[in-house]
Amino acid sequence: METPVCTDATTADLPFDVFARACPSRETLEHVTGRWGSLTVGALRDGPCRFNELRRRVEGVSEKMLSQTLHALERDGIVHREAQPTNPPRVDYELTPLGREVADRLLSLIHFLEGSMDEVLVSRRSYDTARGGR
């Protein structure tokens, strides 16, 4: 199968270009960096989880959104779904090797942002004050 190419003149050396409208990498980036995708990938970095364990870990996500998120991440090869033939059925979710690499990079950003929150909050207060408060 031939690898699709999504390039323009500025990124001719890359086989995919997330900035190109039709490039499939854009959809995967959205799945990974969207609110529920990033939190789900981050939560799974600690190890496999069952659906309800994951839902408790990612506070605020609805059952429907978590299910959609897991399906998208599984389709992209970031999450592996393992269904056990037990009664009641047991389903575990875990990161694939690709998913672990994505999680490591994502958690690096998350930890950086958590460590920078004092600066962010000062900036927010300053911004809000300059614009009439919030």
UniProtKB/TrEMBL annotation:
Source organism of this protein record: Streptomyces lavendulae subsp. lavendulae
Protein name: Putative HTH-type transcriptional regulator YybR
SUPFAM superfamilies, alphabetized: Winged helix' DNA-binding domain
Record InterPro entries: HTH_HxlR (IPR002577), WH-like_DNA-bd_sf (IPR036388), WH_DNA-bd_sf (IPR036390)
Gene3D superfamilies: Winged helix-like DNA-binding domain superfamily/Winged helix DNA-binding domain
PROSITE patterns reported for this sequence: HTH_HXLR (PS51118)
Gene assigned in the entry: yybR2
Domain of life: Bacteria
A Pfam match: HxlR
